[in-house]
Each structure stands twice: as C-alpha cells, then as structure tokens.
UniProtKB/TrEMBL annotation, chain A:
It is a multi-pass membrane protein. This is Nickel import system permease protein NikB. It comes from Thermotalea metallivorans. It is found in: Cell membrane. Pfam families: BPD_transp_1 (PF00528), BPD_transp_1_N (PF19300). Keywords: Cell membrane, Ion transport, Membrane, Nickel, Nickel transport, Transmembrane, Transmembrane helix, Transport. The keyword rRNA processing does not apply. The lineage of its organism: Bacteria, Bacillati, Bacillota, Clostridia, Peptostreptococcales. The complex is composed of two ATP-binding proteins (NikD and NikE), two transmembrane proteins (NikB and NikC) and a solute-binding protein (NikA). Belongs to the binding-protein-dependent transport system permease family. OppBC subfamily. PANTHER family: DIPEPTIDE TRANSPORT SYSTEM PERMEASE PROTEIN DPPB-RELATED. CDD domains: TM_PBP2.
Automatic annotation (TrEMBL), chain B:
Residues 96-285 form the ABC transmembrane type-1 domain. It comes from Thermotalea metallivorans. This is Glutathione transport system permease protein GsiD. The chain crosses the membrane at residues 102-126, 138-156, 213-242, 262-285. It is found in: Cell membrane. Keywords: Cell membrane, Membrane, Transmembrane, Transmembrane helix, Transport. It comes from the Bacteria. InterPro entries: ABC_transport_permease, BP-dependent_transpt_permease, MetI-like, MetI-like_sf, OppC_N. One of its GO terms (biological process) is transmembrane transport. The gene is gsiD_1. It is a multi-pass membrane protein. One of its GO terms (cellular component) is plasma membrane. Belongs to the binding-protein-dependent transport system permease family. OppBC subfamily. The lineage of its organism: Bacteria, Bacillati, Bacillota, Clostridia, Peptostreptococcales.
Length: 308, 298
C-alpha cells in the first residue's frame, strides 16, 4: 500500500511540471508588456526597457520558464501587479473561504445525493424515482451562476431572509453552499442510482435474498458497500471541482475566495496572480484526485490486494 | 464488417451505412424523453437559422431604446426589455445563433484534435501512445473551465478565441474515448484483412477504424455541445466571452444582474433558456447512448 501511495506521489511530479508549463506558456502568449503595465502607459521607453531587463523578460522562453518553475517550487510567484503583495500570501489568505464553501457544498451534495440515489434505485420506476430523476436532470442542466441568482432573487430580494452575498456569518454561507451543493447533488444522485442498480442485479444479492435475508439488510449491508465505491470517486471529483471550479458561484455571491481572486486578476491583467492561482487550483485538484484514488484503493479490496 | 472488400468499399457501403443510422433512430424514437429533447433542439436550430425573419437584428436586438428600459413582459415585448430597452425575446432568438455556433464549433475542434490524438495513440501504441496520453493527463489536471478561462484571458475575448478555448479544454476526454475504441478495434480481423491486402495506415484509420469508433464520440459530442454552451455562458458571465452589444445568453444574464431587484425577467429568461437547451441536449445524448449501446440491442 505504501508503495502504491509513493508511486502515485511520484507520478504527480511530471503532471505538475506539465501544468506549470501549460500555464506559463498560456500567460507567455498574453499580449501586453508587464513592464509597461507596472510603470504605466506614460513611462519613458528606457525605463520600461530597464525594468524588462531586470525582470528577465528579455530572456529566451525556456530560461524564463526554468526560472518560473524554480521560483514556484519555493512558493515564489512574484508580487501582484496591482496590490504589490506576494501572490501566494494573497491566495493562502483567500483559500479558507473557498475551502469552507466547498466543504459545506459537498456535505449538502452527499446528504441529498446518496440517500435519494439509493431510494431511487431500490424503488426503480416508482413516483419517487421519476421525480428525483427529473429533479436531478434539471439540476445538471442548470447553469450554476444562474441558479445562484435565482436563489438570491427568491431568498434575498423577495423574502428578505438571507443576505445576497458577502462573507461573514453562517447566513452568508447558506445560498452559495446550496448553489454548489444542489448541482453536485444532482450528479451524485445519478451516479449512486446507476451504481446501485448495477449492484442489485448481481448474483450475490439474489443469493442473499434467496437465503432469506431481509430487504433492509440486503440493501444496507450487501449492496451499499459495493455500490458506493464508484460514488466515492464522483464525490471526490466534485470536491476537487468545487475547490477550483467555483469561480462563477464565488463571483455571483461576492465570495472572497480563490475563484473570485482569479476572475479579478484576469480583469486587471495581473499575470503573476493569474499564473499562481491557476497553478494553485490545478495542484489542489491533483492532490484531491490523488487522495480519492488512494481512498479508493483502501475501500476496494480488489485494488488493495494488488499492492500488498 | 461489411468493409472487408477494400476495393469496392465506397459503392456498397453507402446504402448499408444509412440503414444503420436509420436503425439507431428507430430505436431512439421509442424513447420519449430523447425525442422530446430532439424536438426542442430542432426548434432551437430553426430559430437560429430564421433569427432574422423572427426579429430584425440591428433594429430590435441591438439598437438601444432607453425610453423603454427594464419593462416587464407584455404583449409588445413578450419577455420584457433589458437595461438598454432592447427586446429580450429578440435577443434570445439571436443569442441562439451564437450559442449553437459556439457549441458546435467548439465540439468540432475538440473532436478533430482529440480524435486525431486518440486515434494515433491507440493505433500506434507504445511510446507515441505514452507521450500523447501523459500530455492529456496533464491537461486533465486543470479543471476545463479554468483552462478555458486562462486561454481566453491570454488570447483576448472574441468569438473565435472562445470557441478555440472551449474546444481545447475538452480535447483530453475525446482523446481518451477515441483511443479506447481504437484499441478495441485495432486487433480485429477486418483490420488485419485490410492490412494484408496492403492498405496504408492512413487508409485503415480513416476508412475502417474511424467509422466504427464513431458511436461513443457522437454521444460524447452531443453532451459536449451542452457543456460548451454552459462554458460559453459562464465565460460571458464573467466578461470573458462574447462582448456586448452582441446578444449572448450568458452576457444577457450578467447584464441583468445589477437590476435583479427591479427587473427579475432580465436574468430569469436567459437562464431558463440555457437550462432548457442543456436539458434537451442531455436528453438527446442519453437517448443516443442507449440507442447505440450494443448491449441493449434486441
């Protein structure tokens, strides 16, 4: 098992190097001169040239990339063009807000998705199943940011129960977490249902029923254990997406997280900030995926036995 | 399997091939939900094609009329007017053109690049396969919406860049799908037969492997159009997509955001239409998957 974890960690290195290469190349192509941006439109040409030289912007591409990776490994992504703060310090100060929101969102998603998926599968083609499947289909089809706006419209504008955005008390969490949670819930419901349906048709379930085990035990003990294995992957993936991909929801609710930091940085053409946030999110995403794979190996004896 | 006779391939396959797709359609037509999705998509496509007939572009969808701004739905303006007094219905109609175009072109780009990479990786295997698929893993480590955001922010927001960014960001999933199908086809007898009579690699891949690997790509492509439309709306929502005053569903939504308190309809209707479109594409995609699934064949 240790060998497996170690090998997976080792495999992460080329992936992360690749990610930095992609992000760096994309940002390299961005038109506009960073030196000019820092000094302003009216700066004299010699001053801009001097700064370019100082920042190493005149060096060949690969040299610049090498320097970027070297600095990135030490957590140095430079300073923000707009606030002049260390970009990584800025990202870390924003990360807790994103983490809290993503965790609450996944919690809601699991709390809705797994039970609904199980009931749907055990009562296939019932009214409950049809309604929850239609709801799940609507859930996956709804743009997240629009759902957020509709929740604001209902709960903040018309009913006045909850704040429409911002960060602070628990009330501020409810709408953004619901927005993220319900759309993930839709995906988890569908996955749980189809996985459960597949397991229920297996021979060993029929055997359990045939020997007189009551239906509750069959579902809870025999079916669920195996049916939930693929669901773990989906939950983990959703968590990863919420950590990184909640860009739009954070924008809708003025949530001071990493996602909105990225959107603001893009609008201000703050290249170091954009680079660092994208790398940060990709790294987080990769680690979450790795965690899921390892967890997967733990709960599935078939995989576990391969690495003993 | 019919294509073992290399030299006459083009003549006898044409009618036969059509009947395969007819068969798929016949099977799908039993699925009410899928047909419902297909009907909605046909209506949307017709709307996009005849947008200029339904509402003139310049006069109704673009020209501002501040005297009539933020009016609620009425007989004159079915879905009300936006913050510049433009008819929302007309803008949604023209927005369908943009969304469908971006959706289809972006998916086309993904299929073209991803499909080629996947086919090459699967067909040649070995080192080439390894290099291509590891590169795809790297792309997969970046959430696709994020990758699209990064590409558009680097290239600058324009219709073409948007399609390119969204297209590139989902290349890896197509590469994986095509590679998997090619791998399963590569060692089959009819491929061996084609090779035995001296067909080139290019001919084998394009004439024999690709047509047989098409089914999963079509399913993924249908669902991919939905994803691309969602991404477009999302990018436009944060100002990186289609630029105003061009009518695009996501940017209409974003424009109405500031007026949520006074004019609910400006944000509600574009979002509703996005949802219906995505729903229809999902239904059709699921239906196609079932219809193409050999396991379900009677």
């Amino acid at each position: 098992m240790h060998k497996y974890v170690f090998r997976r960690l080792l495999m992460l290195i080329p992936v992360l190097l690749g990610v930095t290469f992609i992000v760096f190349s994309i940002m390299y192509m961005t038109p506009g001169d960073p030196a000019q941006m820092i000094l302003g439109e009216k700066a004299p040409a010699e001053a801009v040239e001097r700064l370019r030289e100082e920042m190493g912007l005149n060096d060949p591409f690969l040299m610049q990339y090498g320097r970027f990776v070297k600095n990135a490994m030490m957590g140095k992504f430079g300073r923000s063009y707009t606030t002049n703060r260390e970009v990584f310090a800025e990202i870390f100060s924003r990360f807790p807000a994103t983490l809290q929101l993503a965790s609450l969102g996944v919690l809601i998603a699991v709390a809705i998705g797994i039970p609904v998926g199980i009931i749907s599968a055990t009562k296939q083609y019932s009214l409950f199943d049809s309604i929850s499947m239609i709801a799940a289909l609507i859930g996956v089809s709804m743009p997240n940011f629009w759902q957020g706006l509709m929740l604001i419209l209902l709960f903040s504008v018309y009913l006045g129960w909850l704040p429409s955005g911002g960060y602070g008390g628990f009330a501020n969490f409810i709408l953004p977490a619901l927005t993220l949670g319900t759309s993930s819930a839709a995906i988890i419901t569908r996955m749980t249902r189809s996985s459960m349906l597949e397991v229920i048709r297996q021979d060993y379930i029929r055997t359990a029923r045939a020997k007189g085990v009551n239906e509750k035990t069959v579902v809870n003990k025999h079916a669920l254990k195996n049916a939930l294995i693929p669901v773990i992957t989906v939950v983990g993936l959703q968590f990863g997406y919420l950590l990184g991909g909640a860009v739009l929801t954070e924008t809708v609710f003025s949530w001071p997280g990493v996602g909105r930091l990225l959107v603001d940085a893009i609008k201000q053409k703050d290249t170091p900030m954009v680079q660092a946030t994208v790398v940060f999110i990709a790294v987080t995403f990769s680690f979450v995926n790795l965690g899921v794979d390892i967890l997967y190996a733990f709960v599935d004896p078939r995989i576990k036995s391969q690495y003993k | 399997m019919i294509k073992m006779t290399e030299t006459q391939a083009s003549v006898p396959t044409t009618p036969k091939k059509r009947s395969i797709w007819l068969e798929v359609f016949r099977r799908m037509s039993k699925n009410k939900m899928a047909m419902f999705g297909l009907a909605i998509i046909i209506i949307l496509v017709l709307t996009a094609v005849f947008a200029d007939v339904i509402a003139p572009y310049e006069e109704v969808a673009i020209k501002q009329n501040l005297a009539q701004r933020l009016q609620g739905p009425s007989a004159k303006h079915w879905l009300g007017t936006d913050e510049f007094g433009r008819d929302i219905f007309a803008r949604l109609v023209h927005g369908a053109r943009v969304s469908l175009k971006v959706g289809i072109v972006a998916v086309g780009i993904s299929i073209l690049i991803g499909g080629t990479l996947g086919a090459v990786a699967g067909y040649y295997g070995g080192k080439i396969d390894n290099v291509i698929m590891r590169a795809m893993d790297i792309f997969l480590a970046i959430p696709s919406i994020l990758l699209a955001i990064a590409i558009v922010s680097a290239l600058g927001p324009s219709l073409f860049n948007l399609m390119l960014a969204i297209g590139i960001s989902s290349v890896p999933s197509y590469a994986r799908i095509v590679r998997a199908s090619v791998l399963s086809l590569r060692d089959q007898e009819f491929i061996e037969a084609a090779r035995a009579i001296g067909a080139s690699d290019f001919r084998i891949v394009t004439k024999h492997i690709v047509p047989n690997a098409l089914a999963p790509v079509i399913v993924q492509g249908t669902l991919g159009v939905a994803g691309a439309i969602l991404s477009t709306a999302g990018l436009s929502f944060i100002g990186l997509g289609i630029q105003p005053p061009a009518p695009e569903w996501g940017s209409m939504l974003s424009g109405g955001r500031a007026y949520l308190r006074y004019a609910w309809h400006v944000t509600t209707f574009p979002g509703l239409l996005i949802m219906i479109t995505i729903l229809a594409l999902n239904l059709l995609g699921d239906g196609l998957r079932d219809a193409l699934d050999p396991k379900l064949k009677q």
